[in-house]
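Running this now, will post back.
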Amino acid sequence: MLVCNRQAQARGVRDGMRLSAACALVPGLHHRPRDADAEAVALDTLAAWAGQFTPNVSLEPPRALLLDIEGSLKLFGGLRAILRSLRHGLAGMRFSATIACAPTAPAALLLARGGKETVVNCRRGLEAAIAGLPLAALDCDAPALQTLAAIGARNIRDLLALPRDGLARRCGQTLLDTLDRALGRLPAPRRFFTPPARFAARLELAAEIAHSEALLFAAKRLLTQLAGFLAARNGGIQRCVLTLQHAPGRADTTVEIGLLAPTRDAGHLVLLARERLTALALPAPVRGVTLEANEILALAGENGSLFPARVNAPGEWEKLVERLRARLGANAIIGVASRADHRPELASRAVQPGARDAKIACGPRPLWLLEAPRPLAEIAARPHYRDGPLALMAGPERIESGWWDGADVKRDYYIARAADHATLWVYREQRRTGGWYLHGIFG
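Update: finished.
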């Protein structure tokens, strides 16, 4: 058995124990075979997420990452702040980790492999820090470990006390080079991880899930990984797709999350996912969840304020619209924008919220436009409304347009005041039909 969780450890199971012994100790023990390909994918995903703390991330398969954070200390507010953010993010993705920090990458790796969570601040303390680590932390081959055990070496302190020449002959120069690199005596060049151009991550569920609300846990884990990936790229997304995978032979269920403006806010993405999943009826139990984001957009930083306030904060109305659309449907919330047409009944159009208006030069327009113009009585050459004459306050504004599409108009518009002090928008038809019409109400 390679590794066991805390629940198994509480029942007496230990890492390295034979599976038969563990099953005899805990009847009904759940166990899974090791999947090296899945481990490699998970390590790559974590490396892309960790890029938000430093661009210098190195893979140390099968289960370690090395982060060069010296250049990031001031940006994140010091070492403690970075370590706190690392632990918080890993916990949010349900990964457990041993985090160690040292002046050299090999020393930090040895400390982490030895299960020693510590921070070593100077090179002079490196030897004392790694001396008590077991030899297994060196990750050397089995024959070398057997040779060292045969001569009574139990930890790195015992190893450092041995003659170097004899140790090199018996265990190879590679073992000595590993120690020298950890202690800073030899350089330790590393190849840095290059994140992919697009994000794709999959999470296999431990058991089938038949209710869409229960999928939020998996979605939150994947969206947290996506947020870290975007932070490393200094980018955002306007669209991502959750794919719910069912049993073989059943078509996958696709859940698309769309946004009005690019974002990498994990909390907001989780809220949108919750709204979509809550309203979703699953056709079959779900076995795995995949999250994909193919188009990564540049995301400019926001300017801070000396006295920040939540009133009219940038992006707040976009988040409200996105939540409403996630809950009610993409077509339930639309925007209204002007069209480059002077005819009032054709001067507006339905658009995506936040779309820009087409600018045209015109006079004042009422907030409420009637669906169809209403004829007005004309007495003594004056228009009447509700048994009273209208007082023309402003105008005329001539609108003569539409000859190209067969819906041409020729009207003179006025702003009028009714007897009850209502402000109206009326026009006189200048074509052969003539007459006065009410077309809008200002208030």
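Residues 383 and 389 are 6 Å apart (CA to CA). More later if anyone needs it.
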